[in-house]
Amino acid sequence: MLDAAVAFGRLLRRAGLAAGPDRVAGFVRALEELDVARRDDVYWAGRVTLCSRWEDLEIYDRAFRAFWEDVSRQALKPPKTRISVSMADDSVQPPKKTVERNERGEEAVRLRYSPVDVLRTKDFALYTAEEFAELHKLLADLKLSGALRKSRRLEPAPRGRHDPRRTLRDAMRTGGEPMRHRFRRARSRPRRVVLLCDISGSMSAYSRALLRFMHAGVISGAPLEAFVLGTRLTLVTRELGTKNPDRALVEASGAVRDWSGGTRLGDTIKEFVDRWGQRGMARGSVVVILSDGWDRGDVDVLAEQMLRLSRLAHKVIWVNPLKAAPRYQPLARGMAAALPHVDEFLSGHNFESLEELARAVAEAAGRES
Amino acid sequence: MSEAVDGRRGALPPGVSHSLELGERLREEGYLVGEGLATAIFLALKLGRPLFLEGEAGVGKTEVAKVLSRLLDTPLIRLQCYEGIDVHQAVYEWDYARQLLHIRTAEALGTMEDREHFEDELYTRQFLVSRPLLQALEHGGANPPVLLIDEVDRADDEFEAFLLEILSDFAITIPEVGTVRAERPPVAVLTSNRTREVHDALKRRCLYFYIDHPDLEREVEIVRLRVPGAEENLARQVARAVQALRSIDLYKPPGVAETLDWTEALVALGVKELDEQLIEATLGSVVKYREDQQRALGATQQLLTGTGGA
Question: Are residues A142 and A155 in the same domain?
Answer without folding.
Answer: no
